[in-house]
């Protein structure tokens, strides 16, 4: 807690998930928990398995984590989320590799998630040059329980392959230079798009841009907003052999498609 101006590098943190008490509850035994940490780097860390989140980023009392870099980290067999960030400003996730999750995992590879009643904003978050494969849930989720508490999110230069879902969001975001292939869109008992806009009670003011991305060979629809976006832009994207049933490339998008 309150670990400022330091780094964690070159460690292997294995929670030995085989010893987890599998009673269906969320056991908060994170491999690495960063609470209220500022100016910190986590680099070249391997997390072969976790009993909850591989890495958890949270505030400590009123001290919100700021200026964190999580880079060159490989996470597998997580039970809840690979990385969960509940509070934070200026967060960068770079070269994160996630190739498997525990069957029935509750979350995705990276979860940016605000709890109900928490009004502090999370802003300036970048997810770049990451690789997500063989996940039976979504890969990235942005979930805000209070409107407009997650801002300035960029997801770029990342690959999503052989997963249940791609990106599920209830927040404004820019997605660019990403590659999506063989996304089924089936998880949590229902169908989802590769980029799926939901989870927001007040989403009519969201802004979503998708630029220079490739979508191919997936049973999931490409982009779906359910009419929840005030402004959207889809430009320079390629769609090939995708869509649930009707092969719709973009459903309910507004703006330049």
Structure characterization notes:
The chain is an all-beta fold and 257 residues long. It is built from no helices and 26 strands. It has strands spanning 6-9, 32-35, 38-43, 46-47, 55-58, 66-75, 83-85, 89-98, 110-113, 122-128, 131-133, 140-143, 150-156, 159-163, 167-169, 173-176, 179-183, 186-187, 190-191, 195-197, 206-211, 214-216, 223-224, 229-235, 238-240, 250-251. The strands form three sheets. The protein has a 15-stranded parallel β-sheet that branches. A nine-stranded parallel β-sheet has the order 2-5-7-9-12-15-20-23-26, with no helix packed on it. A two-stranded antiparallel ribbon has the order 18-19. Strand 18 (186-187) and strand 19 form a beta hairpin. It is globular and about 45 Å long. Mean pLDDT is 83; it is low at 245-257.
Characterize the overall form: globular
If you average the pLDDT, what whole number results?
83
| Number of DSSP E strands | 26
Rounded to the nearest angstrom, the distance between the terminal CA atoms is 46 Å
Determine the fraction of residues in helical runs and give it as a percent range. Answer: under 10%
Q: What gyration radius follows from the Cα positions, in whole Å?
A: 17 Å
Largest sheet: 15 strands, parallel
State which percent range the strand residues make up. Answer: 35-45%
Q: Helix and strand succession?
A: EEEEEEEEEEEEEEEEEEEEEEEEEE
Q: Find the structural class using helix and strand composition.
A: mainly beta
Poorly predicted runs of 5 or more residues: 245-257
Number of helices: 0
């Amino acid at each position: 807690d309150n670990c400022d101006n330091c780094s964690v590098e070159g460690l292997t943190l294995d929670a030995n998930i085989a010893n987890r008490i599998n009673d269906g509850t969320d056991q908060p035994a994170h491999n690495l928990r960063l609470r209220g940490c500022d100016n910190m780097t986590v680099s070249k860390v391997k997390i072969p398995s976790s009993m909850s989140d591989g890495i958890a980023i949270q505030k400590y009392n009123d001290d919100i984590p700021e200026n964190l870099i999580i880079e060159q980290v490989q996470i597998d067999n997580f039970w809840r989320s690979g990385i969960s960030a509940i509070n934070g400003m200026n967060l960068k996730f770079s070269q994160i590799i996630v190739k498997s999750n525990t069957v029935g995992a509750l979350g995705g590879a990276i979860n940016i998630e605000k709890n109900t009643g928490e009004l502090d904003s999370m802003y300036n978050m970048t997810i770049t040059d990451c690789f997500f494969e063989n996940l039976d849930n979504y890969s990235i989720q942005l979930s805000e329980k209070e409107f407009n508490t997650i801002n300035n999110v960029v997801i770029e230069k990342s690959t999503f392959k052989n997963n249940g879902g791609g990106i599920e969001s209830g927040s404004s975001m820019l997605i660019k230079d990403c590659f999506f292939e063989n996304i089924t869109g089936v998880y949590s008992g229902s169908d989802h798009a590769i980029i799926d806009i939901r989870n927001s009670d007040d989403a009519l003011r969201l802004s979503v841009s998708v630029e220079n991305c490739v979508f191919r060979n997936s049973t999931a629809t490409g982009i779906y907003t359910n009419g929840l976006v005030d402004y959207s832009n889809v430009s320079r994207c390629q769609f090939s052999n995708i869509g649930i049933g009707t092969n719709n490339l973009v459903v309910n998008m507004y703006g330049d498609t």
